[in-house]
Amino acid sequence: MAAEHADRTKRTTPDDDGAAREDIVEQVSRQQPDDEILYDLAELFKVFGDSTRIKILYAMFENELCVNDIAKLLNLSQSSVSHQLRILKSSKLVKFRREGKSVYYSLDDEHVRAIISMGMEHVEE
Amino acid sequence: MAAEHADRTKRTTPDDDGAAREDIVEQVSRQQPDDEILYDLAELFKVFGDSTRIKILYAMFENELCVNDIAKLLNLSQSSVSHQLRILKSSKLVKFRREGKSVYYSLDDEHVRAIISMGMEHVEE
DNA sequence: TGTACATATGTTTAATTGTTCATATGTATA
DNA sequence: TATACATATGAACAATTAAACATATGTACA
């Protein structure tokens, strides 16, 4: 794929290049997932894309925490934490269990951990 | 860590639980990366968190593409594509090379591919 | 150098969204 | 059941931002 394109870019005739480009574009178009899937993908990353939510997620990297813990830890209002947890829940990024009056939240699966780790590597390099 | 917490939650004395919570919170607080790093991490995911940018990134998954290709492929204005590529560039998600009048963009490194793939797995499950 | 094509960028506007405040729901216990 | 504590949720406001439009910059070629 990439190799094929590399070949084409070596051509010098304008018309040929134009035709090649159209071919590439059409091929990419066929390979592109449905808009709906890419929309969902963007929505997923949007959830990671807020510093409050990232702080909450990171805090849960190795511990389950209740709403109050998170509020104290990050110096946020209980309301704000609860609102954000609602978003994290509906994106399946965290799971929770009730124990007495408290609700303990934790990361939902290894994907979440992996995505955060991968992003961290990119940021730190 | 998680094991230690599991132990503590078995205690029934309210005072003990309270003290244990504080300990956990303080420990998490020490483990938490600097706000600045988490802010950068959120900023990174924010870039992935737009359907237009995700479409552009995905289109470049296996091919380098010029601005015009992307505009045609995704039925977007040249201006819009260029603005988005600027954001992708400044986040180091894409690299580019000039060839004649055109500028060819491609994914910057394997991290980018990995993050997208990981997100895709989460969305598709 | 002038013209055409490809890309970049400044500005404005409409829409999205995180936080705050107020209030409601849920749970344990006296 | 009344009270206190923990969490959830509805509404309003302020800040962010993607798209559109106009225009500028950069490149090739006659």
Classified in CATH, the superfamily of the largest domain in chain A is: Winged helix-like DNA-binding domain superfamily/Winged helix DNA-binding domain
Question: What is the domain tally of chain A?
Answer: 2
User: Number of DSSP helices of chain A?
Assistant: 7
The largest pleated sheet of chain A is described as: 3 strands, antiparallel
Strand order of the largest sheet of chain A: 1-3-2
- The whole-angstrom Rg of chain A is 22 Å
User: How many strand units of chain A?
Assistant: 3
Oligomer: homodimer
Low confidence ranges of chain A? 1-18
In whole angstroms, how far apart are the ends of chain A? 29 Å
Biggest chain pair interface? A-B, 60 and 61 residues
Strand % of chain A is 5-15%
Q: What do we call the CATH topology of the largest domain in chain A? A: Arc Repressor Mutant, subunit A
Which structural category do the helix and sheet elements of chain A fall into? mainly alpha
CATH class of the largest domain in chain A equals Mainly Alpha
Principal-axis shape of chain A equals: elongated
Helix-residue proportion of chain A? 55-70%
How confident overall, as mean pLDDT of chain A?
Answer: 87
Provide the succession of SSEs of chain A: HHHHEHHEEH
- Give me the CATH architecture of the largest domain in chain A, please: Orthogonal Bundle
